[in-house]
Amino acid sequence: MIVFLASCSATKGLEKGQQLYMGATIHLHKQSDSSKVVNDELSEELQGLLRPEPNSFAPKLWIYNWGGPSSKKGFFRNLFHKIGSPPVVTSYGAIEKNREILQNRLENRGYFRDTVTVDTTVKGKRLYVQFDAYLDSQYHIRNSVYQFDTVTALGKTASRLTRRWGARDKGQAYSLDQILGQRTRLDAWLKQRGFYYFNPDYLITLADTTIGSHQVDLTMKLKYSTPKDAKKQFRVNDIIVFADYTVGTDTTFKYINHDPSDSGYIIIDSAKIVKPIVFSRLLGFKKGDLYNLNNHNLALNRLTTLGMYKFVKLRFEETDTTQRPGYWLNAFYYLTPAQKKSIRFETSGYAKSNSANGGEMSLNWTNRNIFRGAEIFTARLYGGLEKQVNTGNYSGAIRRVGTELSLTLPRVLSPFQFHTNPDFLPQTVIKASYEFYTRTDQYTLNSLNLSYGYNWHQSQTKSHQLNVLSFTFVRPTNISPGFQLALDTNIVLFRSIERQFIIGSNYNYNYSSLNASGSARKKNNIYFNANFDVSGNLLGILTGANVNKGKEKTIFNSPFSQYIRGEFDFRDYLKLTRKTTLATRALFGLGYAWGNSTSMPFVKSFFVGGPNDVRAYSSRSLGPGGYYAGNPKNAVYFLGDQPGDMKIEMNAELRRNLFSIVDGALFVDAGNTWLVRNDPTRPGGKFSNQFYKQLAIGTGAGLRFNMNVLVLRIDVGLPMRGPDTESNDFQWKMKKWNWSWIQSNWIWNIAIGYPF
Asked: Which of 269, 280, 368, 680 is the most buried (most CB within 10 A)?
């Protein structure tokens, strides 16, 4: 292998006079002992400006070289060149350009007396570059003045908006990016107050660096060349909506003679595609309003996210009006509808590690604007089959047939007021589904689900989901005698298919700074999700249900579930370097059944183990507490599902980009579930003050293939601490680590997306 790799020279494919670019390093130096240089992230920022980037993965370069020179033709040449990466070369002119870019960036950061030098070294056919930056102290702002007149509408508005900016700027480090950001911010605020034609290029900032002591005075003012239209404050006159616009639509007629519809807009919709009232909820402008950039973008965003329009365009045109003083704009909305109805057929196949093979087919029908109110209705019919081969004990098959119906309305249908963010359309979502699920030699399940709820955003980072009514009914039938015997001796197995009637409400709150603009540049981002779920509590109180006193109440001959459940998920993403992130998560969940129930429904219980939590253990196989469910290889009906009433989980993962689309990760996971009440069939499962001794711990490593549209993840986990099959207690596993033990106990996880 060494001889083989040595023969694959990285410089083999270079032409005469070329050197393989090996990258550049940047060193920051003080010009004098009195110079104050802020090194935090500055070197990393400068490093990110250098171009080109060197070959990051040598084997890809070797593969490219196997294909031979570009002038060579043939299948293998094309294949190797496509898979591999060409050698990165650069010129001395490009290196000098990089030096100028670095010097310019330092000046933009307030290092006005800097000097950047460059040195190159050639070893063989490899070129190494080093930049040395000699920096004086960074300049800071002494005074910041925003100089506008107090006579014109523009001057008075700008003066009012910036009156506190000067005090805030004082003492901050000079930054050209900040100055440009202030211009952009002031421009956006002026456009929110009617100044339609204003542009940030009409603002100029003068910097006086001659005052000494590494200080600078800044003065922002309006350019003398600013056009008159930019100083005018415009209002919206007529609002015309072409609701069925195509390229051939005639828009030249005198719409001004048409009376506005009841919605307050002039709607051009001869086909009556949409009810006029829809636009009163979607469009950001009313006649007579000041032009507002936020309302401009708001209307476009709302119309685009409706899902019923293929193209959306908004145009403003200045108009003369003798009826009212001031300056006026007519607004034109051009809306091109998408295909109203569509049908899609999907098929999939899979193979599982337990020798199960199967597939599913589905037929999906969508109607956008089904009731002429921009509603989206979807219907899905699906069927699936799964069969195990080479199983030994189990030879049955799984069949699934079902249907799902969903209606999404772009508004809140509620007698109560919802305070929603106008930037996002609130939704009312109605869903219904039915599934017929059967294991051919064990049992059959009939499941019915209904829900009615709302989705809305409080801000860009905060969202809410409330299901006012959530109804689930599960009924098992056709239980085989052999499986019934297993149910009678395994309470967990029995609970997994027991008859269930869940009727209640649930609420979910989500906060994610990752959704905020500029989050990619932040050093730290957080995510928080809280979920609350209640069922049967009002029914239980009204009916006096108390199963412990023999007062179990039923609906449709099925006892309804009564419980309270909450779950909290907190995540932190700390960017250590440009390519390295430390992701951590803490999760806590608790459910309590009472009144008409003695235990949580199986589908509402907590589980630990699998590709998204404690990855060193099989899916849902841990707990509760110190209870050990046995070896699945020796059990005929082992489901691998160990439900609990409480869950504690902690995760840490160090992520780093290795090359191209491939990221690497090292992780440590810990967690378990517990019972609130003692269960004689699962000894050691109840929560106690010794819970920390029952935390399962696993570690491992993985690869992530980030292809933008999806992330394919492969993880291998190894248990560090967990239940011991011999002592029925939690034991550290590291002392057992050897290659044979590792091969027998590692867990491979293949999944889509990050675990958290």
From this structure: 368
